[in-house]
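Problem statement: downstream parser choked on a complex file, so we are re-checking the raw output for the uracil run. The parser issue turned out to be on our end (a line-ending mismatch), but while we're here, posting the original submission so the record is complete.
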Amino acid sequence: MFIPAELIRKKRAGRHHTHEEIRFLVQEFARDKLPDYQMAAWLMAVCFQGMSDEEISWLTQEMRDSGTVIDLTDLGLTVDKHSTGGIGDKTSLILAPLVAAAGIPVPMMAGRGLAHTGGTLDKLESIYGFNVRLDLKQFRAQIEKVGTAIMGQTQEICPADRKLYSLRDVTGTVDSLPLICGSIMSKKLAEGMSALVLDVKFGSGAFMKTLGEAEQLARALQDIGVRSGKRVTALLTRMDEPLGRFIGNALEVQECLDILQGKAAPGGGKDYSDTVELTLELAAHMIFLGERAKSLQEAKALAGVLLKDGSAYSKFQEVCAEQGGDLEKGLPQATHSSSIKAPIAGFMHYKDTERIGHACIYLGAGRRFQTDPLDMAAGVEVFRTNGARVQVGDTLFKLYHSGGPGVDDAIREIEKSFLISPHPVERTPLVAKVLL
Ligand code: URA
């Protein structure tokens, strides 16, 4: 038994916790015995003071053990992917069915929107009826039948992350290496995967702003996985501009449906090529780790075929059918839209992409408070890539919303996210580094 305020003061002073202290904080919070206000204060202390490697490993272990750890070893090699979060980052929706279509079981425990970034669970819930609240039996049965299932943390599996995640989302305590490690790896270790591909993002739209910070996070995540006997590959990928054409729950699902069905992006704006490129890169690493190809080149070629020949789309339809999602009903559509046009000519330069995520929160696509309902149709359409040439009056962004009070704030955020440079702007490679 410990006095919570003393543990908060200890971390605030930059001292190290014992394993028993971390167990107390995590387990009491998961069982609703430690209130949100004390946990939020402790999380903020961690953001300022960090944690030792030992503390991170105890945090991850206690979060994982707050619920059941699923054993999928009888299914052979299982592979999952997780991203540290970005703007328009929708690849999981294509990857789970695509890799399952290659014959590799994909157990996927995903998250909701977190701070300025979107979440796979919120996106899937924009499909009418889609149920992400699976129990353990349903999760396993669906992986055996369809090859993949996507669910969120529950009271049964990783309850500590379920509660911590939604508290961090609204208390400014997301961008902390130890907390991100605990959150991601506790879920991944609990879901029972045997190999993992991490998409660790860096840039102004990511939690890690520089390649160096992202590499530190990637190595810490990899270390935890490897020490638990998992194979982990990390891709360090650019997040200094939005990924793909659309940002927002239903809008991103539509982009994924288009890609899965081989449809091009609507005319007049950015195409889907960066979403497709990153998806195929991540898929190649998943297929390679799942031992369905002898080389990365072969794995990438297979991923391309499965995307092109409709196998991944059929698998996505199967997932929807199993999890109650009704694609026939169509996706929610916004009632209003507002455009932002170029005031001068020049070259597009995204300088603070995180602000586009803030704009989405103002439009209702993300949460300002834990209990906020989401506007599934809300979001932003992106018309230009970094470095693209821009003429006066070109549409740069279109905002989708329901005419609520946040629209002016959203427009202000978008206007601060970019500038139009008189000089050409270099577009950096999508994948900067791979840690095998
Ligand atoms: N994804 C997660 O699951 N948790 C984090 O903390 C960040 C990204």
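For whoever reads this later: The CA atoms of residues 283 and 408 lie 39 Å apart.
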